[in-house]
Design a protein that fits this description.
heterotrimer; A alpha+beta (732); B alpha+beta (151); C mainly alpha (429); A: 732 residues; alpha+beta; Aldehyde Oxidoreductase, domain 4; seven-stranded mixed beta sheet; five-stranded mixed beta sheet; 16 helices; 27 strands; 22% strand; B: 151 residues; Ubiquitin-like (UB roll); DNA polymerase, domain 1; 2 domains; binds FE2/S2 (inorganic) cluster
Chain lengths: 732, 151, 429
């Protein structure tokens, strides 16, 4: 074992040394409990190995003599299920016995050393499937062909006479067989003349069948290791307090007040934060931190508040704007018998609030750093760590773990920066954890937005012109992505500029970039999560004012778009659209395309005379074009509905004196079981050139569908979120 | 020094009496299956059983727990075969998983009091937050566990 | 910004004899001690501002007033005040220029401060507090009430007491306790009910109304007398002392306006002084005959069954039980019991409603914030649910206090500010 290496219990290697030899290979079953060894699996500890293993076919696949197969998964598992789905795609080609497959994270360190052999490693934009599909199918096909070639060579027959299935290669004419485990060593040395073609969807036999997720077995008994669960001998615990006004700086802090507190607390000053490291338990660090009274330089931002932001955003509706989309002439005269509409929609800042607060554990040494963290992008995080630590990327050993919720938050790496800064001072391994309050207030927020719609409908009641102007923060700018030549942040107008309603002849979509001192970032279904609420509500306004059924109105607008109509129709049918409802109950419908998939939802709500709102049921129809693991797609849709519902009903981060007000779940309220509607999910797979994502598309339609259902139930139009700020009493 | 029996093993915990049980379990005893989500008894991620009662361990100071019996998710069953765990597997409940130890511990205690719960009982009795939104499956899994426990 | 709503406390003015007989100057740290005991900082500072520079907004039904700059800045503060000027302001409520002050300052209590302590205080402000140039904000009280004449009359009627005089029939400790409670600590400002003219109905132990409990700032300050259930009759002297020292004991944890007192004042007093206050308070007889509180476990059983009958019990199970327990005993001294807690038994439920809606500012004892904090329920529970839960709590475990109505919660919701969970320690210098 590498002498420099951090304590062995933290790496898979220890597991190999102490446990795996009995099986004679690299990887053994996850558990001595047979009922938990469900088909493919992963260890409770997904931390990767950074070096080549003994029985590698290539960097992705290891096959041991006992036939156990290890597949390396290059992205992250944060509950979205792709740690199962991506290896499933690989195995569609590899044809290994799924029950013998084990999965681990691919090493970001190795990816750096071996020229990005795993490609990029991010899990965002719902693209783990889309971004992996061709690559892993190729990897699997290549390995399979090399296994077949190795068998053919052994038998002295033509490879074309052989076929593989279930971890066995068969020589078809003679019926002879060889197991993968017997072939792996030879296969590793085979060079194919030509890489094989990958299967087309009509040839799939494995993809598309529900498989239990490999990580779940570890999430029912406490075995699953997340970033916060890393334990490094000799480590200290750190808590951090950042300047209450984001962007502010630390002026001074009296360190003496923590002297003598338990755990020998050490105060570490950072540019915009103060941290305390203590021995024994994180609680001691947190307590010592609470005692500090830092002085901050908060600047002008310290005089701002939410009401002012909204005033300024509203004022900016009448200022200069950039054009995102223009077709026809929205200023044409209103047709005879036509009507005009105008409405302004507002959505506040939101925090991601993953269930596991941000944290990172680091062990910084002279020529090496180990980092245990749950990140959505192990490759990029490795580069950032190198920068923070002043080392080369090859010296960074980032042990990605199960991620306790990401939703876009976990690829900034600010928590890792803190941990490294503390480690530099205390010169010990450090586990740094943000409190829930830090996690909420120092989130990189979902931007706030104010959007104005102007619509014209003709004599037939259908829209002839739609003009949209949105004032919103720029995630694209925050992420350092260059704006396109039109100066429009394409995320800020997502769903507005390129929505399915192309039937409107005259359309104008404008964008006004406006930020405050709150940093913004990708939040589940960026742009769309607020734009679709506004757009689908406004469409509903036009439909209902013209006495049209909102579903039929949308059908007419989507005429000729078979894929959209299929999703919309299915949602209406499964959601019982049009069936009678008691007084005070209503249905709403909404649709969007997001992350390459289409999603329509029908929400049914009841509003009591006292104004209490209950979302009874949400029907989701989602067309991801292709389906790898139906089980986890359905789970993602269910989760998205709840995620969207928390935002719709309760979500807002307010600012007072520059400080984000909401800090913990008492003030930043979440949907719990009592508010959770029944959710039924129906999946479509319409095929086509693109594989759609599943993690996000069911978020955007939710708030629109619920708001439209409230209108149906009460006649009250919700034009700003969260809904809890609206008084619905007496409306039914 | 406070004596805690955690999953049947005695531990001498040398921490201040105001230390929440959660951190004693995670940092001193070294069991990390119990999770930190909020620290103010709002989310339930830290739920364990103290002398058989479900408690949110982030809000239980160890000062009053000398001699207490604590069960964490790791000690719920020797083989992960508790009916609630079995139901969780069958319904594929967890997503990110961070809330799930607490959900399971809360469900186990809840089912002791409500062996045949209705949906309404479940909604009122389980108040843990799941940010991933696994509620649909969670509800089903609790019903399934109730059935398994009857059988 | 912290706002205090004073129920139109039109306080003081008038000529109080100057403290003439000055002895030798007390040591400088004595002044700081007196300033602590008087809790001057809580009103004369704002969060994020300089110590004693004033500016705290105090809402009154007549308009807002602002506390003043009492740093030794000659222009905007009290830098030009002589000891006599200072004394006239502190014990008499008249500024150096002769105008009647509008501060909601507890003059009737401060009038009892000894000459020695006034002088120590003066030295502290002049020599220890750094001057801050910060102009006072004008009062927003308009119209006829802006003319200060009623104050003179008010003063004639209600400010008839001078410097504290030791009672011969009590020992030194008791007298010291009385001096602190009636005088410097001005406990009566919150805990004594007020009459029609907003005067405190009693200013010392001779009055049965003194410290009988009152409602102010949307908080109900509990009865501090010997009443067995709603007062401190069930507390031992040691329990009282421990509460004043730490904000905690086995029966209660401080919250609401008392947080200011704990964060800035009583924990800094000597053990002798705290014990003296406790001894004095324990001597105040009950005003009403009450049966001693007796624990009853019917509610505990209802909660433990998991099938609560009362709607409030269900709310309690969903939101309160994990900290305060099915037995209502909390986890003393860290998390307060609800069973038998005088604040729970208080006839006026304002504090309980306020606390559930908004939680409390963190209790910071000698710079160390509390380990556990009450969450806010403003956005999580409806008026009905809060009323049900509080009614349940007030009827459970032998508590037997009147129910809370939704209308009471509804009325409190808009007029109370949510508290912040941020830890703020005001610095004396
Ligand atoms: S961490 Fe204990 S309830 Fe959230
Ligand atoms: S599974 Fe992620 S929070 Fe519940």
């Amino acid at each position: 074992m590498d002498g420099n290496r951090t304590t062995p219990i933290l790496t898979r290697r220890h597991f190999i040394v102490t446990a795996a030899t009995a099986a004679g290979g690299l990887m053994i079953g996850i558990s001595a409990m047979p009922h938990l060894a469900r088909a493919a699996s992963v260890m409770g500890q997904p931390w990767n190995d950074d070096t080549a293993a003994a029985h590698e076919i290539d960097a992705w696949i290891v096959i041991d003599p006992d036939d156990s197969v290890l597949i390396r998964y290059q992205r992250s598992e944060m509950g979205q299920g792709s740690m199962t789905a991506v290896p499933m795609m690989l195995n569609e080609e590899l044809q290994a016995d799924w029950s013998k497959v084990r999965i681990e994270y691919a090493s970001a360190n190795r990816n750096h050393r071996e020229k990005k052999i795993y490609g990029d490693q991010n899990s965002n934009s719902s693209r783990t499937i889309n971004g992996s599909q061709v690559l892993v199918q190729k990897v699997g096909a290549s390995a399979r062909e090399r296994l077949i070639a190795a068998a053919a060579a052994k038998w002295g027959v033509a490879a074309t006479e052989c076929a593989s299935a279930n971890s066995v290669v068969t020589h078809k004419p003679s019926g002879r067989t060889l197991r993968y485990g017997e072939l792996a060593a030879a296969a590793a040395t085979v060079k194919l003349d030509k890489e094989p073609a990958i299967k087309t969807p009509d040839q799939f036999t494995f993809i598309g069948k529900s498989q239990p997720r490999v990580d779940v077995v570890h999430k029912i008994n406490g075995a699953a290791k997340f970033g916060m669960d890393a334990q490094v001998p000799g480590m200290v615990y750190a808590a951090v307090l950042q300047c209450p006004v984001p962007g502010g700086k630390l002026k001074s802090v009296d360190e003496a007040v923590v002297a003598g507190m338990p755990g020998n607390p050490v105060v570490v000053k950072l540019a915009d934060a103060v941290a305390v490291a203590a021995e024994g338990t994180w609680w001691r660090a947190r307590q010592a931190l609470a005692r500090l009274q830092p002085e901050w330089d908060v600047g002008e931002a310290g005089n701002t508040d939410s009401a002012q932001f909204f005033r300024e955003y509203r004022a900016a509706l009448d200022g200069p704007a950039k054009t995102a989309r223009k077709q026809g002439d929205v200023d044409q005269a209103v047709p005879a018998g036509g009507k005009t509409f105008e409405a302004v929609y507002e959505t506040p800042y939101l925090s991601h609030s993953p269930m596991e607060p941000l944290n990172a554990t680091v062990h910084l040494q002279a020529d090496r750093i180990d980092v245990w963290v749950g990140t959505q992008d192990a490759y990029e995080a490795t580069e950032k760590v190198a920068k923070f630590a002043g080392l080369e990327a090859e010296q960074v050993y980032l042990h990605n773990s199960f991620v306790g919720g990401g939703f876009g938050r976990r690829d900034v790496s600010d928590e890792i920066a803190h941990a490294i800064a503390v480690a530099k001072v205390v010169k010990k391994p450090v586990k740094l954890i943000w409190s829930r309050e830090e996690d909420t207030r120092h989130d990189k927020m979902r931007p706030m937005a104010v959007t104005r719609f102007k619509g014209v409908t003709g004599a037939d009641g259908m829209p002839t012109a739609l003009s949209i102007r949105t004032v919103a923060g720029s995630i694209v700018k925050a992420a350092g992505i260059p704006l396109p030549p039109n100066g429009v942040d394409f995320v800020a107008v997502a769903g507005l500029a390129g929505n399915g309603y192309a039937s409107i002849p005259n359309v104008n979509v404008d964008y006004v970039m406006r930020d405050t001192h709150l940093p913004v970032w990708w939040w589940r279904a960026p742009g769309q999560n607020q734009n679709i609420f506004a757009l689908e509500s406004f469409i509903d306004e036009m439909a209902t004012a013209n006495g049209q059924d909102p579903y039929q109105f949308r059908r007419k607008m989507l005429a000729g778009k078979a894929d959209w109509l299929a999703v919309l129709d299915a949602a209406a049918e499964k959601g019982d659209w049009g069936k009678p409802l008691p007084k005070g109950t209503g249905r709403g419908i909404a649709i969007c395309d997001d992350a390459g998939s289409l999603c329509a939802q029908v929400a049914e709500v009841t509003v009591s005379p006292k104004g209490e709102l209950k979302v009874n049921r949400v029907t989701v129809v989602m067309d991801t074009h292709y389906i790898v693991n139906p089980l986890s797609i359905a789970e993602q849709a269910e989760g998205s509905v709840i995620f969207g519902l928390s935002a719709a009903l309760y979500g807002k981060i307010e600012v007072k004196n520059g400080v984000p007000v909401q800090g913990n779940f008492d003030t930043y309220r979440m949907v719990r079981l009592a508010q959770a509607p029944k959710i039924d999910v129906h999946l479509l797979a319409s095929g086509g050139p693109k594989w759609g994502g599943a993690g996000e598309p069911a978020v955007p339609p939710l708030s629109g569908a619920v708001a439209n259902a409230i209108f149906a139930a009460t006649g009250k139009r919700i034009r700003s979120l969260p809904i809890m700020d609206h008084d619905l009493s007496g409306s039914t | 020094m406070i004596t805690l029996t955690v999953n049947g093993t005695q531990h001498q915990v040398d921490l201040e009496p105001d230390t929440p049980l959660l951190w004693a379990i995670r940092d001193a005893v070294g069991l990390t299956g119990t999770k930190f989500g909020c620290g103010i008894a709002q989310c339930g991620a830290c739920t364990v059983h103290v002398n058989g009662q479900a408690m949110r361990s982030c809000s239980v100071p160890i000062g009053g727990l000398d001699g207490a019996n604590v069960t964490t998710i790791e000690g719920l069953s020797p083989d992960s075969k508790h009916p609630v765990q079995a139901a969780w597997l069958a319904e594929d409940v967890p997503q990110c998983g961070w809330c799930q130890s607490g959900q399971i511990m809360a469900a186990v205690a809840f089912l002791k009091q409500n062996p045949a719960p209705t949906d309404a009982d479940i909604d009122a009795g389980i108040t843990n937050i799941c940010r991933c939104g696994t509620y649909e499956r969670l509800r089903r899994a609790i019903h399934r566990a109730a059935d398994l426990m009857k059988a | 910004m912290k706002t205090k709503i004073f129920a139109a406390m039109l306080v003081v003015l008038g000529a109080v004899p100057l403290a003439q007989a000055q002895q030798t100057a007390p040591p400088a740290d004595k002044g700081e001690y007196v300033a602590r005991a008087g809790d001057c900082i809580a009103c004369h500072s704002v969060v994020g501002g300089k110590p004693f520079a004033g500016g705290l907004k105090m809402g009154t039904p007549l308009g807002a007033i602002y506390s003043t700059n009492i740093t030794p800045d000659p222009e905007t503060g009290i830098g030009n005040y002589s000891l006599a000027d200072f004394d006239r302001a502190v014990r008499g409520g008249v500024a150096k220029d002769g105008h009647n002050l509008y501060p909601a300052m507890p003059y009737p209590s401060y009038a009892k401060i000894t000459d020695d302590d006034v002088r120590a205080l003066y030295d502290f402000f002049m020599k220890q507090v750094p001057p801050v140039k910060q102009a006072n904000k004008p009062s927003e009280i308009k119209g006829v009430m802006g003319i200060r004449w009623p104050l003179a009359i008010w003063n004639m009627l209600f400010m008839d007491k001078g410097v504290y005089v030791a009672k011969k029939d009590h020992d030194d400790a008791w007298n010291r306790g009385a001096y602190l409670v009636e005088g410097l600590e001005h406990c009566g400002a919150c805990h004594t009910p007020r009459g029609l003219a907003f005067q405190e109905k009693g200013l010392d132990a001779s009055s049965g109304a003194f410290l009988q409990g009152a409602e102010l700032d949307a908080w109900s300050a509990p009865n501090l007398r010997g009443d067995l259930r709603t007062g401190l009759g069930g507390w031992s002297k040691d329990e009282l002392a421990s509460f004043l020292k730490t904000g905690h004991n086995d029966k209660a944890v401080a919250f609401g306006s008392m947080i200011d007192v704990l964060n800035n004042s009583t924990p800094y007093l000597s053990d002798d002084d705290v014990n003296a206050m406790a001894a004095y308070l324990k001597s105040l007889p009950a005003t009403t005959q009450q049966a001693a509180y007796v624990y009853n476990d019917a509610a505990t059983k209802e909660l433990q069954s998991g099938k609560p009958q009362q709607p409030g019990a269900a709310v309690y199970l969903g939101n309160c039980v994990s900290c305060h327990g099915a037995d209502g005993k909390g986890q003393a001294p860290f998390i307060p019991p609800l069973a038998g807690n005088p604040a729970v038994l208080d006839g006026i439920p304002s504090s309980l409603i306020n606390l559930v809606l908004n939680s409390a500012e963190p209790l910071v004892v000698k710079g160390m914030p509390d380990a556990y904090r009450m969450p806010q329920y403003r956005v999580q529970l409806t008026d009905d649910e809060i009323a049900q839960a509080l009614s349940f709590i007030r009827g459970a475990w032998g508590n037997d206090a009147p129910a809370v109505t939704s209308a009471q919660v509804k009325a409190m919701r808009p007029i109370t500010d949510p508290s912040s969970d941020r830890v703020i320690v005001l610095k004396m210098r």
